[in-house]
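To: structure subgroup
Subject: Chain for Friday's discussion

All,

I'm putting the inputs and outputs inline so they're searchable in the archive.
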Amino acid sequence: MEILRRLFSAGDFMPHGYCYLWDPRLVWLHVVSDALIALAYIAIPITLIYVVRKRRDVPFTWMFLCFGVFILACGATHVMEIWTLWVANYWLSGAVKAITALASIPTAFLLVQLIPKGLALPSPDDLRREIAHRKAAEEALRKMSEARLAEKTTYLNALFDNNPVAILVLDRDLRIQMCNPAFERIFQYAQAEIRGMHPEDVIAPAELRAEVVEIRHRAVAGESVRLTSKRRRKDGAILDVEIHAVPLRIADDLAGVYLLFEDVSQRRVLEEQLRQAQKMEAVGSLAGGIAHDFNNFLTVILGHSEMMLEHAGPEPTLCRHLEQIKASAVSAASLTRQLLAFSRKQVLEPRVIDLNTVIHETEQMIRRLIPESIDLRIVPAPDLAAVKADPTQIQQVLMNLVVNARDAMPISGTLFIETANAILDEHYAARHGSVIPGQYVMLAVTDTGIGMDPATQARIFEPFFTTKERGRGTGLGLATVYGIVKQSGGYVWAYSEPGRGTTLRIYLPQVAAVPDLLPQVTSSSQLPAGSETILLAEDDDAVRSLAQDLLRAAGYTVLVAKNPRDAIALVEQHTGPVQLLLTDVVMPGMSGCGLAANLAALRPETKVLYVSGYTDEAIVRDGVLAQGMAFLQKPFTRDALLRKVRVVLDK
């Protein structure tokens, strides 16, 4: 208590205003000066404390606090200077100065220790350079990020624009936001036309609008939807499409839906063509399997019925029965040829031909096929290019088409047969499956008959499919046309509408060659004969016996063998010449070609005539007769056998 009393007591001291002689000017000079200094000393620590509290990341905060205490104490000494002008509390003034001294010592000590750390701080120039360096680095990083973003954007845009799959992007309201060029190409809409519209208002057939809406809502619910359906093009055409609807999410938020459409119409066409080819291949395999033996049976029936007719005499009943047997065998042989034709397993002898000439040569037969109520109009193209095909088979194609056209016009009508040069380009090939682009010759047969609905049109080339009454057709006519045309390297399509007639167009590849002369059919009723020696090799007993009888009756010397081994032995024993080898192609142990090769070593002058009821890769390639080969198709008649033998011998 004594200390406090003394501290606040003036004692016997005089205020130091007396030292200034109470000169007002001098007194107020000191008062104002000390007051301003005191205010400044008080303001400085308050400011320092404020800064430290606001910027806690400022280094050396403890130094700021110590300095603030020291400055505040200094301010207090100046306040005491003003106070002691009038009140002589010099002990209190001294105590304040002592406190100031105590605050200054640690502050000065700490400041000395802080000098190295302070000197280590970067200078303003260093800071400016660091800031410039960081700005440059940030700018480089920004440009790199922008370049990467631009590259990524370009890449994504390229994926979007060049994607062959049609893409629709919908916003949150499930309205069209954008589409890619594939969508514009497939559906024929420009992006500006459909932006802001709902998909069901653009590409959905009327009966499938509900399906489109359901797909959108399922995608919005987070489901990835995939299905095959139909969608409408701008021109109204209906496309088969595979659809994939996927929710579009950005940062886990639904931003919309994107729809992918792949046009599978062409794939459906190709699949249908494959199914058609598989059907025909299956029936063709069956036909090929039975053709060899079946044609042997027909050869025997035809041959013996012809010989019996020669010796039947004036018995009309017997002759009528024999004629019916022969006619049935001929019909069965025709059916077998059609089976082999549509399955593309027949032997073709292609020539360079002019289709106009083929039509001209066939015109009289065509006119006999159609009634007078049908007006026949032939429109041949001038300067028609040549094609390479078997003229006999092309005539068969033409006759089959004419018969179908005739049956489609039971009362009356007009039948057009037209030829033209044609170019099938890449666009045509893309629409028609496996077409090879190039130059073709078109043969078109058009009728003004009853026409066909799409379901019938889709099946007309199927084997055994017919819309005719039972007994009026086998269902092989157009299937045969299809097989012959395809085997000749061409294409055939049908165009028809109910009540508006039908057009069948055939396209055969052009060839740059001069057409051959068509073979002239001899009108002579006399059968050719000869005296040459013929080696007959045939494993079927009945066919071998028949051929032997027919050849010997025509004057030939016949060496008969039932297999290639016996045939070679006969030739080795025979001392005279052998002008012709007449051999079946398919025999046990060795093929007909193998026999011909062995015989060529023994008798190189011997000519060869192959006989078979089925194509064999030994003498044909893809159904086309190898160059220089002579071939006779089973079943054959006596006339066909003797004429072919004579032709080969006379070469």
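Points worth raising on Friday:
The chain has five domains: 2-120, 163-263, 271-342, 351-511, 533-650.
The domain at 533-650 is CATH 3.40.50.2300 (Rossmann fold).

D.
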